């Protein structure tokens, strides 16, 4: 589980006739380690993002999110027309940006001020509006809407034109069959400000208008039915808009169904430079016919034979050409037809930059052709391709794996279905295969120390990326990162994550040749250093009614700035016990614990299993000595830590030995300073025996507390994103409600209550929040970090409150404070102390970013005097990973003016210290 560094909170004071408390909060900044490209193997081995010192904090993995919908673009400036209180607004549909437009929002402005807004469905891009007044200068905007919302509005329209009927269309061609006629026309010059919705065609017989036929607004050609053979017809056409029907066009030339020439066209499209010959076909009517062009123009290079209707020639210009051919028979009957011929340009080979090739690397060059008529045939007009490459005659792709370096010039030819060809010359350069040489700045380094690897590439051009891999002693290969090649070189400065022999190599991926090359392998021996892997908590003592060898555990703590590979690390105990962490174990992140327990391990939270279960972690106490040591799998088998009561299985002064196997919950807990384990290389200084009872445990001095080991994938992370501050920041830290002393009564001892606010300063909700006591003035307790223990220390015990909540007025509003209970295995009575935890209740959905929860800790005072309390905030969620912070210690409050001046001078030396004096009686 990712862990951020902890936020340390300390209060201190004097318990006698009066108490004074102070609180310190020290946030820190974060720095990120550059993440590398991770292979599937590396993904299994990689640790979650961890807190670390600024030189190497792992970056959190990115989240992949579904793309959010995007609003539509703004329509172009609309057009508007108006008559009285009626206006018509017309626009073109904008880009929908990947989400279908569902509505349009039209806003009207009168004299520059918004007058009204109305939404319409997206079926039409022209709408009629009823204005509240005909007076004023009116303009309009249009905005499109989709599932993402309403997009930006268009620019305002120009002042509306006068809304009117459309003008008359123009009939271009009419040709009649037996009972039908095909009519083509041009649209009117003006639509009157309102889009044309339909056209009405009116047949005339001898000047008498017949029933109209309605046809769509497009295309501009329609078939009229219901005609009578042998009757002479003329036709007019009128445009219809929302304003009504416009004027009719001028009459067409007359046609007589079944007698006038029926003109039809089955011709093909043309190609520039290819001979073209197609006839305009005619049936009915009386030959001979005369052909002419009455509208539009033929494609340049083509001509119409007026006697035969043959359109022939060699087109010279590409494009689409519309024209009307009129046919007049010998009896004077007329037929005309609108014809369109598309002229395709001649084939033209288009080749992007010819890619550089490399020996043995996949090569592909695929040209395209513009113009011409499919299908195409590709070939070489001259020259020879590089050995290993060939050309596909159907697609023109040149591909393969070249075998020979050099420069090769060829002429590439394409021929289309009409026989036209295009030839272009290309030059293909094939360079020698890239060779990658890897060197390292050192062949042997200490764990957590950087090594610089340099990859030199050549002899040709090398552009692309180099990925570095580490093949570890377990046979696992891990991706350590990727760099871009610059000037045929790539450099990596990194810390290798595994003890022992690391075989490092790089893989080059070219972006200009598709070449791939693997470097030589560079061996680097990584050595362990004492203190890098620590024993954080352990127990070899057992509890009542359980065999001790079944109730043991130890927490291994990565005390470095980088992830550490676990496989091969050994835990040793007297009597020949050796536990080797298997290759199936994962990477342990920086500042993270790894919990090894035996079959009946049941400390703290039984629902959270150990990371690794083993048969035993040593002999029964007092039957052969106790102690543990950690050995890393480097060449020397370095012992990084040892803790216990037996020489050889301890560091510095051994821990005191039990007189007999204990029968209570207990554990040796390493003290913490500034959020990290204390390591003075002396067991007596660094460890405290904690138990859930008061007093010595089988002859060994202990302090009241809770065995609560850390686990690699446990439910809590230590966080300085969750900040602890005073409940009421306007009051002194030792003043109510931030601190309160409840005097003893005949039925209740003296109590100290400390109240605080916990605020989520992160960017995600915190779903779990608890406090872990890290230092406390108590018998054999944890001292004030970095400060000599003051004389006459108080003796405190964390206890459960008498009421679950209290309310206070802070800043003019009422807040509810949770009085926190002790988590198991702490039991009240007698209470908790070092390493005890207290969980806060959060609102549904967790503590949101910027949210605050108010809490209180309750302590019973067994003995008055100078006191100190420190805790760490542990949570899930809350924001980005940050490195551990430095926690300031609380100063002892003086009772005399002379001592007060001395304390003030001491506080001035530490900018991290905030000490507010106060007292209660």
TrEMBL record:
Q: Which domain of life is it from?
A: Bacteria
InterPro entries, A to Z: Cadherin-like_sf (IPR015919), FN3_dom (IPR003961), FN3_sf (IPR036116), Ig-like_fold (IPR013783)
What are the alphabetically sorted keywords of the record? Carbohydrate metabolism, Glycosidase, Hydrolase, Immunoglobulin domain, Polysaccharide degradation, Signal
Q: What residue stretch is flagged as signal peptide?
A: 1-23
- Give the GO biological process terms: polysaccharide catabolic process
Q: Which GO terms describe its cellular component?
A: membrane
Q: Which residues form the Fibronectin type-III domain?
A: 71-164, 165-260
Q: Name one Pfam family in it.
A: fn3
Write out the biased-composition intervals (Low complexity).
Answer: 40-78, 898-912
The record's listing under PROSITE patterns reads: FN3 (PS50853)
Molecular function GO terms recorded: calcium ion binding; hydrolase activity, acting on glycosyl bonds
Region Disordered, residue ranges: 29-87, 898-921
Protein name (record): Fibronectin type III domain-containing protein
Q: Which organism is it from?
A: Micromonospora yangpuensis
Source organism phylogeny = Bacteria, Bacillati, Actinomycetota, Actinomycetes, Micromonosporales
